[in-house]
Amino acid sequence: YAAQALAISPDEVTLASGHWNVVILWNMISGKRVGVLRGFGRYVKAISFSKDGEYLAAGTDLGDLQIWDVHHLRRIASVHFGGLDVSNPAFSPDGSIVAVGVYGTGTIWLVDAHTGEVLDHRKVSDLGCGSVAFSPDGKLLIAPSTGGIVTWPYDRGGTVRVFSVKSR
Fold first, then answer.
1. What is the pLDDT of residue 124?
2. Residue 168 and residue 150: Cα distance in Å, rounded?
3. Which segments within 28-73 are labelled E, that is strand?
4. pLDDT tens for residues 26-71?
5. CA dihedral in degrees (36, 40, 44, 49; nearest 10)?
6. CA–CA separation, 116 vs 78, rounded Å?
7. Is the dihedral of CA 53, 74, 133, 96 positive or negative?
8. Taking the C-alpha atoms of 127, 133, 138 and 139 in order, what is their torsion angle to the nearest 10 degrees?
9. Of 50, 69, 98, 147, which has the maximum CB count within 10 A?
10. In what order do the strands lie in the sheet with 74-80?
11. Are 83 and 104 in contact (CB under 8 A)?
12. pLDDT at residue 128, as a whole number
């Protein structure tokens, strides 16, 4: 199957490619496969690495998120949200939280990157939530929304909401 998602590790050597039900890790210099992360059960549609490259988060087309220890090829957590496509996971700058948007439910979710515990969630849109992003200091989470803080004349069919993120 063709790759549905790609991400490059901060080491600039490892490439992750998401396929039907696996993520394949490649050494981009040698072109060799260096690992396979198995057990997604659905199309892997979104992948990202933590800032230090130690962890990988991947979302599926049926609302699942998995978090992996890249160096040990070990799954840390698997969370099912439902609601179709999970957005590109966003790691907080310190790597402790993974945020995702779930398109079908218009909901954003915060997950502990080391345990998989759901920390918080909030419905932000009736029209889906396709992406999320942390501010560089990790204190704010930005998500597309209906009824958000950015309004006319800047609203061109979508708005943005900004949430305060409380660290543990």
1. 81
2. 29
3. 33-38, 44-49, 55-60, 64-69
4. 999 999 999 999 999 999 999 999 999 999 999 999 999 999 999 9
5. -60
6. 7
7. negative
8. -30
9. 98
10. 44-49, 55-60, 64-69, 74-80
11. yes
12. 75
Write out residues in the chain with pLDDT < 50, as ranges. Answer: 149-157
CB 151 within 8 A of CB 160: no
**Type of residue at 160:** V
Residues pairing with 162 in the sheet: 142
Q: What is the pLDDT of residue 2?
A: 82
CA distance 44 to 63: 10
Length of the chain: 168
> Cβ neighbours of residue 72 under 8 Å, at least 6 residues apart?
none
Q: Which two tokens stand for residue 3?
A: 């790759």
